Amino acid sequence: MRDVFRTNFVEHGESGAACCVVRRGEVVVDLWGGVRDHRTGARWEPDTMTTVFSTTKGVSAIVMAIAASRGWLDYDARVASYWPEFAQAGKERITVRELLAHQAGLAAVDTPFDARSLADLDLVARGLAAQRPAWAPGERHGYHAITIGFYESELLRRVDPKKRSIGAFFREEIANVHALDFHIGLPPTVGDERLARLRGFPRWQLLLHPGSLPARFVIAMMRPDTLAARAFANPKVANAAEMGSPAYRAVEMPASNGIGSARAIARLYGMMATGGSELGITPKVMADVVAPATAPRGGTRDRVLFVDTLYRLGFSRSTRTFSFGERAFGTPGAGGSFGYADPDRGIGFGYVPSRMGFWLNSDPRELRLREAVLACV
């Protein structure tokens, strides 16, 4: 693992990153290196955190699994049974399971959001509730790149006796209890010296990497009226790295702006890989999490990403082209980060970089590390 990590810097353009592996409760790999700020040359430290984009989705899915384990919600119940306003615009029959499997048709939301409006959770909830699905729920699936986290958080607020958002619940019930350096909504007490500065890119640069991304996805992202472009464009930012700016990192975007360390991600998934009991996950819910993913009636082709995907209960699952374990579950993030649990091997894995790559999943830097893990065990 160390040799592969070093090679990423020497031969594959890594500038700053960390990787951690937990196996059966023990930290067996804990690597970090390079710079956390390419402008100043400040070194990456053991406790450096960075924005991990959609790797946040798996963290939020774990929160929802805890809520299900506590009996607050049933995956097969209708979302509107907990959130009556959600039943607007043809959404009355959507189940929690369909929502978490990206089958609800809610990949984009028409109500525009920015950092200021996202701080008003009631305003966000009204915009979400008014949204009309882009396809018949349950018929297809398409990556709810940003919206799924907002829907999950509002659903949690409706069922949690304390009415907490996902960020607040995670902080109080998981991060504080298990001493995890991960935040959904960064508190002002965390200084810039703890954070890596992302090296992002404007959307047009996707055109310069045709071998990394599906051609239909790139073309769709260049046209603002397409579902793919709309799924990634609210809130509207000029550069993906803007999600790490002070304005956006302070608000909760539970699908896309988590900030944390590889160590925290690996430890969290390490607990999930050994059954989740430390987090309060019941055997029944864990069995549901690791069960085979079920494709929607229209097949596995993703309406947003234009590749075959599989989702279950908020997690991404292995496919022919993105394989990380038969019963493994997790989520990759834009730019290259990835966190997952492999219960068959007892592994929790976390990787975070500061230089963003151009891959939907399996960024070569992360993939080499993941393959090294599997070679070891």
Attribute tags:
Beta-lactamase, single chain, 13 helices, six-stranded antiparallel β-sheet, 377 residues, three-stranded antiparallel β-sheet, alpha+beta, 32% helix
The Cα radius of gyration reads 19 Å
Task: Tell me the number of helical segments per DSSP (H or I, 4 or more residues long).
Answer: 13
Order of helices and strands: HEEEEHHHHHHEHHHEHHEEEEEH
Strand arrangement across the biggest beta sheet: 3-2-1-11-10-9
Question: Secondary-structure blueprint of this entry?
Answer:
Layout (H helix, E strand, L loop, with lengths): L1 H10 L4 E8 L2 E12 L4 E2 L6 E2 L3 H15 L26 H5 L14 H4 L2 H10 L16 H13 L6 H13 L3 E2 L31 H7 L5 H5 L14 H4 L9 E2 L1 H12 L9 H8 L20 E2 L2 E2 L12 E4 L5 E5 L4 E7 L10 H13 L1
Antiparallel strand pairs: 1-2, 1-11, 2-3, 4-6, 5-6, 7-8, 9-10, 10-11
Helix pairs in contact: 2-6, 2-12, 5-6
